[in-house]
Structure prediction request, 235 residues.
Amino acid sequence: MNLKKLFIILPLVGASFSASAEGLSETKQTTTFQFTTEVSRTVEKDLMEVSLYSRKLGKSLNNLKNEVSTNLNKVLDVAKQYPDIEVQADGILNRVNYNDKGKVDGWVAEGYINLKSKNFASIEKVLENLGNDVAINNIGFSISPESMKALEDEMTLAVIKQFQHKAEVVQKGLNAKSYQLVDVQLNTPNGVDNRYDIRPMMAMAKSASYATEEMPLEAGKETISATASGRVEFK
Prediction:
């Protein structure tokens, strides 16, 4: 290799090294942080749900189904007096009944009705008029879909604002000129449904005052959380 060609190659090598060093320097100037922020809200459970049932045992399946239907229709007639109660009837089911010796000795017919309302007083009025042939299967409280939707929108904005605030704090701590959200994931409430179940009991088997004390008609509160997790690049 002659001297002229050597001088031509060396500047190219120097330029290539300089470009690589510059790229390395730019890479070092970018810092990535990964963190999570969370917001919580404690809200009243504003939706009450009650499951009621009627069950009859006997020899004639048709008679049993008619009795169960009559019992539940009485409850439906009372519930219809309160337009703010949503009613769902699940129909009547039947099965074979066995005695202690495992022998078939008749039929069992049972039907269920579900009541749902944000007006607890209306449902309580229905429960006070169940009669002797309808029982409470369970009572539960939850946050209504309408309240949950409003809560989700509010908490989504709040957790995003908090995530951005934390990014600004980190930016200030690093003395960075800017930051960029690389990958952010949101986890927001979308249908929490917590219920408190009680044992089946005949509604009028005990005094009305005792039944009122036993039934959990206090809805209580629920704590809902939303989180934002992601990576942020600072330059």
About this structure: The CA atoms of residues 159 and 213 lie 41 Å apart.
